[in-house]
C-alpha cells in the first residue's frame, strides 16, 4: 500500500531530514532524479538529449529551483534549454547554474519545444495559477515538437495549478496537464485523487531519503496488486459452497430487471460459493444464471453472510420494505442506488444506527448529495470521511479515482479506474462483486477497495475490444480477478 501525504507533513519531514544534511542536498537529489527522468523521456521519444529544445517554466520558489537545476543538467548534455521566469524573484543559484550551462532566458515560449519542465509551483502553490503563468502554460502546450507532435510535459513535484492536499483543480484551464509528474520523497493526494490525479499523468516517485521521517498517518492510501492479491479470499480443500460464503441480493424491480442481472453477474465473479437472489427479476436470473437460488423477497430467502440492496430496486413501498428487511440482518450489507435514495428522507436512520454489522454505501456524486445534503466538495476524501463518520458506514464514493472512506478516519483511493466504466449499469456489477467479497469475510474497507480495483481492471479489459457496455464489464471480471490476484 502506498501512502500520500499532505504538504504540511512533507515539509515537517523535510525539516527533520534537512537538519542532518548539508544545505541544498535535498534539492540536488530532487533535481538529479528529475533530470534523469527528463533525459529518459527525450531518449525514448526523440532518440537522445543532444539538440532537443527544452523549455523550463520557473516560478519563484524551490520548485523553480528543482526545474532549473535539472535544466542545467540537460544543457550540459547538449540540450538547447530556454527558461521563462514567471516572477522577478527567482531561485538564484539554480538560475546561475542554468546560465553557466548555456541555458537562455526567453520572454515567452518558442514555437518549437520538445519538452516542457513545469517548475512554476510545487507544494507551495495556492489556488488557480495566476494569469501570466496560466497564459504561458497554454502557449507552451500549444507549441510543436520537432517530430510534429505536442511537447512532452513534465511536472516537477505536482502539476502547477492543482490543489496539492485535496486533488481539486480549481480552474482546469489554468492548470498544467502533465504527461509525467516527477515527485520527491512521497506521493501527495493530488497524485492519487480528484481531477489533479488526471492532470498528474504518470507519477514517478524519486527517493530523496524522506520516507523514514514521515511520522504522520498518510492522508490517503493507494493499494497495489499485491495488496489485492493478499486480501482476496482463497479456498481450501475442506471448503464447501457454504463455507466460501453466501451472498444475497435484493436488487432489480419490474422496471429495472437488468440491474438484478448485472448485480448477480458481479456477485458470481466473486469468491463466494453460493448466490441467492430475492426479488421480482427471478425469471430473468434463472434463465441467465441457473446456479442462483431465487425467491421473491428477502424474508423468504435463506441465510446469507452479506446482503446487497438497492441496485434498480425502485423506491416504492415494496422496495422500502425490502430495504428494512435487509437492514435488520445481522450481517454486512451494501446499500447501492435506490437504497441510497430511500435513506435520504431519514426514515431509515434508526435501523441504520442500530446495525452492528458493517454497512457499506456506494454513492456517485448525486446520490451522495441526496444523503449528505450537498455533492462532495473539492476535497473528495474529506467529504467521504465526513459521511462515513456521520453514518457509521464505509463510503465507496464513485468516480475516476473511487474513494473508500472508513468511519475510523482511514481513506483509500483506487488506482485502476477507467473512463470505460462511465456507462449505465456498471455500478450494479460493482455492488454484486462487493457483496461477494463481504460475504466471503473480507473486512468492509478491504472488500470495497478490492471490488473497485478489480472492477476498474475489468473496465480496462473490456475496453480492449471496443466500446463498452456494462454486461461487458461483468464478463471481464473473471479475467480481471486473475490479473489482480495471480
Ligand atoms: N519539501 C521537500 O521535501 C522538497 C521540496 N523541494 C521542492 O520545493 C518545492 C516547494 O518549494 P517552495 O516551498 O519554495 O514553494 P513552491 O512550490 O516553489 O511555490 C511557492 C511560490 O509559488 C508562488 N505561487 C503560489 N501560488 C501560486 C499561484 N497560484 N500562481 C502562481 N504562483 C504561485 C508563490 O509566490 P508568491 O505568492 O510569493 O508571489 C511562492 O513563492 C517542492 O514542491 C519541491 O519541488 C525539493 O527541492 C526538495 C525536497
Ligand atoms: N469518468 C469516469 N471515469 C472512471 N470511472 C467512472 C467514471 N464515471 C463513472 N465511473 C465508474 O462507473 C461506475 C458507475 O456507477 P453508477 O453511476 O452507480 O452506475 P449505474 O447506477 O448505472 O450502475 C462506478 O464504478 C464509477 O466509479
Average pLDDT taken over every residue: 97
- CATH level-4 homologous superfamily of the largest domain: Ribokinase
Strand content: 15-25%
Number of structural domains = 2
How large is the radius of gyration?
Answer: 25 Å
Structural class: alpha/beta
| Gross CATH architecture of the largest domain | 3-Layer(aba) Sandwich
Query: Helical region count?
Result: 18
* CA-based shape: elongated
Largest sheet, spatial ordering of strands:
12-11-10-13-14-15-16-17-18
Helix content: 40-55%
CATH topology of the largest domain: UDP-N-acetylmuramoyl-L-alanine:D-glutamate ligase
Task: Please outline the major beta sheet.
Answer: 9 strands, mixed
What would you say this structure looks like, in words?
This protein is an alpha/beta fold and 486 residues long. The chain folds into 2 domains: 2-215, YjeF N-terminal domain (Rossmann fold), CATH 3.40.50; 225-485, 3-Layer(aba) Sandwich (UDP-N-acetylmuramoyl-L-alanine:D-glutamate ligase), CATH 3.40.1190.20. Helices cover 41% and strands 15% of the residues. The protein has helices spanning 7-18, 25-46, 62-76, 92-100, 131-141, 189-192, 194-200, 225-231, 257-268, 282-288, 317-327, 338-343, 349-354, 365-372, 380-391, 426-439, 444-463, 470-485; strands at 2-4, 53-58, 80-85, 104-105, 115-119, 152-156, 180-184, 202-206, 220-222, 246-250, 274-278, 293-295, 306-309, 333-335, 359-361, 394-397, 403-405, 411-413. The strands form 3 sheets. A 9-stranded mixed beta sheet has the order 12-11-10-13-14-15-16-17-18, with helices on both faces. The chain has a 7-stranded parallel beta sheet with strand order 4-3-2-5-6-7-8, sandwiched between helices. Helix 9 links the parallel strand 10 and strand 11. The radius of gyration is 25 Å and the shape is elongated. The chain starts with a strand and ends with a helix. The mean pLDDT is 97. Residues 337, 364, 398-400, 402, 417-419, 421-422, 424-428, 430, 455 line the site of adenosine-5'-diphosphate (ADP).
